[in-house]
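Before a colleague's protein record goes any further, I have to sign it off. What it holds is a sequence and that sequence's fold in C-alpha cell form. My question to you is simply how this chain folds and whether the C-alpha cells agree. Thanks in advance; the entry in question is below:
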Amino acid sequence: MPPLPWIHCNLCMSTSPSQLVVTSCGKVVCSTCQPRLSTSTCRQCQGPCTRTVPLTNKAPKEVLNLFTDIPEQLKAVFKNYNFQENQKRSLLEYKEKRTGQMKNNGMESVNRKKTEANMFGQMKEKLVSLERREAGLREEMNRITSEPGSRMVGEQGGVGDFSGGLFGRGAEHFGQEG
C-alpha cells in the first residue's frame, strides 16, 4: 500500500510513523502510541480500544478500502452501477416488449370474439328466418292436404303424378295434364 500524505497517528499526530494499526472504532495509531490505547477511555468504544488490525497489505479488504484512492473506488462503483443499470434496463425492455405482445394478443382475441359474436348473431337470425319459413311451409302443406278432395303429391291421378317418371308419358306431353 503506497503511503498517503494524509495518513497520521491520531494520538501523536505524526505523519511518518513506522507501523500503523486501525482500531475497530476507526482510529489510526502508530506502534509507539498503541500501548496508550489500553489505558485510555475511548468515547466510541466506551472503554479502552482493544481491537486493532495492523495496517498492511494483509489487512481485511474493508479496512484497506478506507485508505484506497476515492477516484479509484468511484470508478469501481460506477462500473458496478452501470452493470446493474444495464441489467435493469434489459429486463425492463423485455417486460415492456412482452407486455406489448400480450396486449396485441388480447386485442386480437377481443376482435376475434366480436367477429364470432357477429357471425353467431347472423346465424341465429338466419335460423329464426328458416324456422319461420319452415313453419309457413308446414302450415301451407297442412292447409293443402286438409282441403276436401285434395290429394297428396305423387298419389295416383293427383297433382304432379310422377308415377311414370318425369317423362313417363313422353317428352312431348311434359307439363300437360293427362
Remarks:
- Helices lie at 34-37, 61-65, 70-146.
- Residues 157-178 have pLDDT under 50 and may be disordered.
- Residues 70-146 form the longest helix (77 residues).
